[in-house]
Amino acid sequence: xxxxxxxxxxxxxxxxxxxxxxxxxxxxxxxxxxxxxxxxxxxxxxxxxxxxxxxxxxxxxxxxxxxxxx
Length: 70
Ligand SMILES: [Zn+2]
Known about the structure:
- The chain has helices at about 1-10, 20-25, 30-40; strands at about 20, 50-55, 60-65.
- By secondary structure, the chain is an alpha+beta fold.
- Helix 2 packs across helix 3.
């Protein structure tokens, strides 16, 4: 499942922000919009935060997602 792979990747980053493009790269997703769809859903849920910020991996400012531990 793509959604659970993405959740695991975000968890492994331990609070660091990652953009949809880097998620797609890391997980070898053929379609970038798959990452977009999942992160859009995760944003705002259970400690997930989605907003415009610097991506830890590519250093570009774009929509990123991170998971904040309580
Ligand atoms: Zn990135």
